[in-house]
Amino acid sequence: MKMASSINKMHILLCLLLATLTTMAQGQTRIGFYGTTCPTVQTIVQATVRSAFQTNPAVAAGLLRMFFHDCFVLGCDASVLVSGPSTERTAPPNLSLVGFEVIDAAKTQIETVCPGVVSCADILALAARDAVVLTGGTAWSLPTGRRDGLVSRASDTVNLPAFNDPISVQISKFADKNLNTQDLVALVGGHTIGTAACAVFSYRLYNFSGTNQPDPDINPAFLPQLRALCPNGGNASTRVALDTGSVNRFDTSYFVNVRNGRGVLESDAKLLSNPTTQTFVQRFSGAAGVPALNFNDEFARAMVKLGNTELKTGSQGEIRRMVSSFNKMHILLCLLLATLTTGAQGQTRIGFYDTTCPTFQTIVQTTVQSAFRSNPAVAAGLLRMFFHDCFVLGCDASVLLSGPSTERTAPPNLSLVGFEVIDAAKLQIETACPGVVSCADILALAARDAVVLAGGIGWRVPTGRRDGLVSQASNTVNLPAFNDPISGHTIGTAACAVFSYRLYNFSGTNQPDPDINPVFLPQLRRLCPNGGNGSTRVALDTGSVNRFDTSYFVNVRNGRGVLESDAKLMSNPTTRTLVQRFSGAVGGPALRFTNEFAISMVKLGNTELKTGSQGEIRRLSESKAMLASYFL
């Protein structure tokens, strides 16, 4: 079990509690909710959707699907419209949604006429209804009065019905939303308009369930038509009508197609695998021998029922001013909660855990030592991880958090190693001293112990840091890069992909970087041939990859710096002098590298500290970093 990469549930729950902003007063949706406060809302939405439909009829299916995906996740609260890292909009099932610009256009006009009155959730519900009408469906009276949600998380989309769900799973997912089997079949009938990419169903055409044969549920006469549209190995993004012959008409031909084995998606075909859903398909399609059901009427009834799923009304949620972002006040409130600062401040100090967890340092030391014996490269990994952590929002272990759009997913951090070492230490420490030692302090000590194992000297690490509550990939933009003007390394490696441009085509010259020692160049080119394996790793300190010593500075001084940032240390008079002093060059007063490194590490470790009652002492690491998405 990992112990260093999740935000404590209590703070997530507190933020969710704040997000609901419910003051006991409750409300309900009703017909004519905006009759006096914004009487033109329906006219504005209708005209906006009509204009978009005239330009692109496919937008109708997009709006209907968007409404469905919104309601199925935390209710019909427009959370699918919110943009930003790790929001619902970024989840794989939602990446192909279209029509956001229609809701934006309608909201802009409505805010001009009735500012702060009409929710995005109601605009989306009205737009979906109007889209159906424009494609030939019948209109229905739509209750309004929804409020917009304050939470949008990609992780919450896991229960969206999928294109390959068995019928039992479909029935279960709809039942969870208080929708019965008839509702399911009626709402899936929305596939009468719209399309799907070949990538979503082509496995049915060539290699269904690993058989190298097509799905036997596909009508053999229909199979060549689908294969012609989606050839094996062809363009996976090609879109195919879900209702063959009637792609932009809202009618019952979809059910006729499904009944005749011409369902495009596996989930559509599976409607015939269950006696109850099969009967509804037959009734909606007008099959002989069963009492007919009016699809338009039942679809409208199911849409109203779906639209009342997990409602936010009254004083819950908010009336969002912008479609794609939460109102700033709620963001600030949530951020205020996230800091959890009560006014009391603390400081790091030597011996912070002497009474509360006296074995803490020993546990970290033995854990790092064990990892180093198995793989000496882990020392450089832990040191680099600490540096990357401290440089982003301070030394708060935010780099350890896993999940979409966390710091850990940012390009500079994808090559970090050693997470398992921190996890192992945290697990042991939680057993000995539960809820006492922060992941930030474990990482700080691990980095120190890694340096010692590689041959550096030890130093006393002040402790008492708290773990951060925010981890966003976007915050890593200011991390020093391999081609920044200045930087420094002594243990560890870099992939050829990071520096090979220096060997063959520096600054577009088709020549090597002139800062590379000509004698050193052939050695690097042998390790990283032009067009070779970009993942091959090369020592940053040639001849001393796992030893913490001054040879790195000797190499840099002699034009044998591997990274451009290392070489650039010689381009500035001040940094060049320090390189010379650390390397023991003749003609200048020497500086003891290990001592100065220790001083700098303590200084770095005190960057943007969270202490006292700020942040938290993180306990778990199994769940993703969810809280960050509330602030976007």
From TrEMBL:
Secretion signal: which residues? 1-27
So where does Ca(2+) 1 get bound?
Answer: D70, V73, G75, D77, S79, E88
Feature type site, description Transition state stabilizer: R65
Q: Name one Pfam family in it.
A: peroxidase
EC annotation from Swiss-Prot or TrEMBL: 1.11.1.7
The positions annotated for binding Ca(2+) 2 are: T192, D243, D251
Binding residues for heme b: H191
Q: What is this protein called?
A: peroxidase
| Organism (species) | Cynara cardunculus var. scolymus
